[in-house]
Amino acid sequence: MNKVILDLVGLEPPEPALKIVEAVNSLKPGDMLEARGDRPFKHIFAELDRAGYRHTIRPAGRIFVLKVWNDGDARKIGELGHMNCTDEAKRGKPEIGPEIRIDRLIEAYPEAVDILVEAGFAPLKDPVLRKTMMGDTTLGEAQYVLGMDDEAFMRVVERLKGMETHP
């Protein structure tokens, strides 16, 4: 397994995204990219998901650390900004991953509350706190607030993704 490290601190958009795409497209199965920057890289998550890359994002002081893995079945990312028709658009349901806003996840899948509370997202149990605290918080951002490790977080995401296959 090779580990590629990118220092993107101080770069202005779209340069970080372009460098990430270039590095990700060179990952071989089993390889991992670690990109460090002063922005959370949110706009690239959907492209990583579509191409089949596993990824996490974590704040580390004043920077963000994006980790991307090629588990063997990932495809190259095309030109950024290219919009593909996704299953979400066909279903009207959001794609479940670290970048999904918690309020949108719960709106589409009310049963997600039980899974998230069980995993430690206790404030979601209270409907008032759910609306006030989780308005624009992504699942990935909540991971960091809770201090949940990447493996535990990915298990939660996989359980949530299991809801997609059950209407």
Poorly predicted spans: 81-91
Give the C-alpha Rg.
16 Å
Q: Beta-strand percentage?
A: 5-15%
Helix content: 25-40%
Average pLDDT taken over every residue: 82
Give the structural class.
Answer: alpha+beta
The general outline is globular
Report the biggest beta sheet as strand number plus sense, adding barrel if it closes. Answer: 4 strands, mixed
How many helices?
A: 8
Q: What is the element string, with H for helices and E for strands?
A: EHEHEEHHHHHH
Short description:
The protein has 167 residues and is α+β, with helices and mostly antiparallel strands. The protein has 2 domains: 3-69, TusA-like domain (Translation Initiation Factor IF3); 90-165.
Describe the protein in words:
By secondary structure, the chain is an alpha+beta fold. It has 2 domains: 3-69, TusA-like domain (Translation Initiation Factor IF3, 2-Layer Sandwich), CATH 3.30.110.40; 90-165. Helices cover 38% and strands 15% of the residues. It has 8 helices and 4 strands. It has helices at residues 15-25, 45-51, 87-91, 102-108, 112-118, 127-133, 139-146, 150-161, and strands at residues 3-7, 32-37, 54-60, 63-69. It has a 4-stranded mixed β-sheet with strand order 1-2-4-3. Strand 1, helix 1 and strand 2 form a beta-alpha-beta unit. The radius of gyration is 16 Å and the shape is globular. The termini are far apart. Mean pLDDT is 82; it is low at 81-91.
